[in-house]
Amino acid sequence: MKIPQIKKKKIDAIDFISGISITDPYRWLEDAESLETKDWIGTQNSYTNSFLRNETFEMFSDELVGNFKTVDFSNPIFVRCKYFYKERQPDDDQFALYVKNGIDGNPVKLVDPNGMRGDNTVTIAFWSVSKTGKYLAYGLSQGGDEMAIMHIKDVDTGINLSEQIPRCRYSKVSWLPDDLGFFYTRNPWYGTVPKNEEHLHIKIYFHKIGENPENDELIFGKDRPKDEMLSLSISIDGRYLAISSARTWTENDIYIYDRDTKQTTPLVVGVSAKFSLKFLNDKIIIRTNYNANNFKIFSVPLSNLFSPIKEWEELIPERKYLLQSATATKSKIIATYLVNAHSKVEIFDHGGKEIGEISLPPYSSVAGISCNAEDDEFFYGVDSFTFPKITYRYSPSENKFEIYRKTDNPINPDNYIVKQEWCESKDGTKVPMFIFHRKDMSADKTNPAILYGYGGFAHIDTPKFMRNFVPWIKRGGIFAVANIRGNGEFGEKWHKGGIRENKQNSFDDFIAVAEHLIKYKYTDRDHLGILGGSNGGLLVSAVAIQRPDLVKAVCARVPLTDMIRFPKFGIASRWINEYGNPQIKEDLQKILKWSPYHNIKSGTEYPSFFFITASKDTRVDPLHARKMTAVLQSVNKKNRVLIFTEMEAGHGCGKPIKKIIESQAFLLTFFTQNLGLKI
Predict the structure, then answer these.
(1) Is 608 a catalytic residue?
(2) Owning domain of residue 444
C-alpha cells in the first residue's frame, strides 16, 4: 500500500512570536472534528493495518492474551478490620473493587466496571474509604476520558447513595473521622470557565453525606491560578486539612484549613522546594528537599503547627541516596530510598531512630506501601524485570513478614540477567541504565534491542516487571532502560538538569546510552530501536531527528512533538515550567533548537517511525502525533512512517486489556520487522 496522499493547505499557517517567524504546514490537522482530519485518521489507520496486522501480529496477540490471563491485584487498604483492594480476573478488562472482613474473610465485590459499557472502557479512576469503613467514595470514567463521576456506596449494604458528583479528575478525598462528609477536589462545571480550560481550575469542596453536591461548600481555590494542582490530607482528629498547592512540578505550597475557625493559614509558601506531609496523633512529619537534594524528614508538633522552617525538628537527615517516599504506621516510619535507581526500605520509630531494614532482591522496586497511622500492620509490593509483583504483609502481633499474595511468572528468572551499567554523557555526566536479556545472549552486535526512556517531570524508572515485553525477551531481544536527566532518580538536581534551558541534556544522555549499547556490542545501529511515551515520546522523537544515524526504528506513544504550540491544548499549560514558555523570546529560541516537529529537514534519511496515539487524550493532544507523522511522511521516502489512532481511548486511563494487547502487538510487530527479531 502506498503512503497516503496528504492534503496540505495552499497557504501554510505562519506564527510571528517575539519577532520570529514560524511556519506550520499541517496546522489543519489540529482540528480533530474536521472531515479532512477524520478522513486522514481513517486512511492512516488502514495504512498501518496493511503493514502491521499480519501473522506476526496475530502471534504476538495470542501470546499476550496468555500472558495477561492471570489475576492482578493491588495492595490492600485496611480500615477497622476491613480490607479493600482492586483485582482483575484473568478474563476481565478492568479492575473491580473488593472488600474482605478480616484478613482471611471472604471477598465481596463492591464495584465492577466490567460490562458497564459494551467496549469495556469504564474504569475505577480513584477510590477512598471512610475512616470507619462505612462508606466508599469512588470515581468512574469511560472512553479514555480522565474526568470521572464520583459515587458514594454504603459498604455494608452495597447500595449507592443518591448523590453523584461529576467533574472529578483523579479527585483527592479526605474523610471526616465521623463519616459525615469529606473534602475533595473537583474541576469546574462546563460553561463556568473559558473553553479548553475545563481540565484546569481545580478547587477543594466539602461534601456532606446525603446533600446535593451542587450546594457543596467551597473550601479553597477561589481566585487561584488556573494551573494550580491540589492535593489534601486530614489530621487524625479531623480538625486540620492540609492543602498542597503545586505551583510547578518542582515546588509546592502548603496551607492548613482549620475546621474550628474556618480559617486557611499558610504553612509554607513561596519556598523553592517540594513538601509532603503526613499527620500523626500529635505531630506532622514532612518530607522535603528544602536544602536537601535527596530529601529529608522534619517533625512539627501540632501544638506549634505554624512555626517557621528554622524551628522544625530534623527527624531523619538527608542521606547520600534519594528518599523517594515516607509513610507512617502507629509506631513506625517506613522510608523508601532509591540507591542508583533501585529500592531500599528502612524502618524508623517516630523519634527518627532507625530500627530495621526490609531485605529486598537485587535490582528490585517497591510497588507501594499501604498502611495507616492507627495500626502497625502494613503491606508492600516488590517486583523486578524478572518477576511480577509479590505482596508482603507485616503482622505486628507476630512481628514477622510473610508473602500475602503473588501471581504466576511467565518466565523462568534463572534464564535471564539484569545488569546496571554506566556511560558518560556529552558533558561528562555519568548516566546509568538497566539492561535485561537472556543469559545465553551473545555479544555479536546483531541483537535486536529496544531502549526505553522518559526524561522529564522528575519521573522515576526503576526495575519493573513488564508482561507486555515478555514475548520480546523470550525470543532473544534486549530491553534497556535509561535513567537520564529530567527524571528524578537522583533528586531535584538530576531533574532540573534535564528541563527548560537544560532540556538538551536529556537527549544527550539518551544518545550516550544508545552509543554505549553499540560500543559494547549489545547491538548495532541496524538492530536498535527506541521507545518512549508522553514526554518519553518527545524524547525519542527529538533524538531520532537529531541523530537519524543512531537508530533503525522509533516508536513514540502519545508523544509531544510541536513544542511551540503545546501550552494551548488540554492541561499542557501546566508544563511550561518543564519546557519553557514559547511565548517568551529567550525560551522560544531554545525550544526551537530541539522541538521535533520544527527540526525535520528535507533530504535527510530518518529511521522508521511508528506513532501510537489516542482520540480522547486530554493530556497530550493527538494533534502532536498527527502533525509529526504528516511532515515525516512528506520527507521520509526510504523508511516507513506509521501512525495508529486508538478510538475511544485516552492517555492510558481505563484502557481495556484487549486494547492494550492490540497496541502492544502492533509495537512488537513494528520492531520485529525493523530490527530483525527471530520469531
Answers:
(1) no
(2) 417-675
| 171, 299, 534, 595: the active-site residue | 534
* pLDDT lower than 50: segments of the chain: none
User: DSSP string spanning 587-646?
Assistant: HHHHHHHH-GGG---TT--PPEEEEEEETT-SSS-THHHHHHHHHHHHH--SS-EEEEEE
* Nearest Cα to Cα of residue 542 among 513, 575, 507, 515: 507
Question: CA 28 to CA 37: how far, in whole Å?
Answer: 8
CA torsion through residues 317, 321, 327, 328, sign: negative
Task: Provide the pLDDT for residue 45.
Answer: 97
Q: Is residue 319 part of a domain?
A: no
Task: Classify the C-alpha dihedral 97-101-106-108 as positive or negative.
Answer: negative
Three-state DSSP at 653 gives coil
Per-residue model confidence as pLDDT tens digits over 200-258: 999 999 999 999 999 999 999 999 999 999 999 999 999 999 999 998 888 999 999 99
Residue 182 forms part of a structural domain: no
Per-residue pLDDT at 8: 57
Q: Cα dihedral angle (27, 29, 34, 38), rounded to 10 degrees?
A: 170
Nearest to 580 by CA among 596, 592, 597: 592
CA distance readout (Å), 54 to 41, 49, 58, 59, 193: 20, 8, 6, 9, 47
Domain-located, residue 548: yes
Task: Please count the structural domains in the chain.
Answer: 1
CATH number of domain containing 607: 3.40.50.1820
Q: What pLDDT is stored for residue 9 in this prediction? A: 57
* Active-site residue flag, 651: yes
Domain contains 305: no
